[in-house]
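Reminder: ligand-aware prediction takes two inputs, not one.
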Amino acid sequence: MTTTNGYLLKGRIIDGTLNPPVENGALVIEGERIAWLGAARDLPPLYADRRLEVIDLPGRTLMPGLVDGHTHISFGEARSEEENALYTPVEFRTAKALYYAKKVLQAGVTSAFDAATTYNIAQAVRDAIDTGMFEGPRFAVSGKQLTNHQGLEDSFPNEMPFPVGQSAVLVKTREDLVEQIRFQVKDEIDAIKVSGSNDNLITPDALGSSAFTLEEFRIIAEETHRLGKLCSVHARSREAALWSAQAGFDNLFHASYIDDEGIEACLKNHCVITPTLTLLVNLVEAKQGNAGASGAAAFRAEIEAASVNLRRAYEAGVPLIAGSESGWSPVPYGQWHAREMELFVDLLGLTPLQAIHANTLAATRLLHRFGHEVGKLEAGRLADVLVVPGNPLDDIRLLQRPKSFDYIFKGGRPVDRTPPPPRQRKWYERTKIFLNGLYEYDETSGSGRLVQ
Ligand SMILES: [Zn+2]
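Here is what comes back for the chain with zinc ion:
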């Protein structure tokens, strides 16, 4: 292992704010933090004596490590609700999550907000990384989503018990809402996440209304904030977005059908929105040409609505945060973390600089414990820095090629870029389908054929 006194990086500096970039910039890393940055010509002479390792590659951009506003590190690239809720032992899920965390870091994601876990895996992954045992992003994590019979994750028939492996907990009374928040805070979550509405993936009437009442959202927000935690909600429908914003939730996920009243409530209560359009767009793309696929039209309609409504929200002043939804099979780990920026530009009309801000400094609003330490290139902050060939302000898609990055620094150290070995799936990591279709007997030919 090489030892160094620190690094002197040179290149165009995009600092994570909305300030214009500094061309011909320089940035000094000492220990785990940024010691200095600015125009290269202003570099204080004292750094010349420090024998820093100089990284000066032509045409490079220096920018903060990405802050992914929505991951599910415990979901293991599940292909179905059943796979996520029912199958795979918790011990194996945890091992997988640690394996995948490294891939997320190698995509340039140095911090992330985990938006619901199965079991308490997200806390364990966060702590295993924080304590230096495994490599991965710095995580702030939600617990299991608080849901009820109309919320996302209560997906199975009433005749069976609510699965313990589900990434939610079924809450039946208002007293139990408060009890569950206190229970999860004791389990050291960073944020409470609520299933405020259902989801097109699960039920066709997903977007009709809200799972919880305004009064219930208020109970949740009040107790969560009393205990000093962030309050976030899965809110695809108009009512769920409106009522959670009126109740003072900090962050609304999706908010595809938010209207002017909801936008007004967000502005009044300083709520941010994390859309995760990447999941919807990936689903539509992946399902194209897949004859057995259902739901593509519904996803397309939601993308269209979100494109209009979220653009209005952003233009009105509601901050947007970029999150990828990595963890489900449409969004495998380590691959799509920077796509949301492209979609913010193409679908919502943000500039590339605004999109980068949404995936760096703006996203630190979800990271209560350490948000002030990351997300921005600034002297004193942790040196989570990407060295990127080219200028992402000219082509935001450059950030979707993390293998081309010259360096990913986390806490002042270059991240090991060796990809983890490919892994095989265990037999229990799947929905147990005997055969995807009917093997029908054809009397004329006397043989069988598979009908989907
Ligand atoms: Zn999610």
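Residues 70, 72, 115, 325 surround zinc ion (CB under 6 Å). The first strand starts at residue 7 and ends at 13. We will return to this case in the review session.
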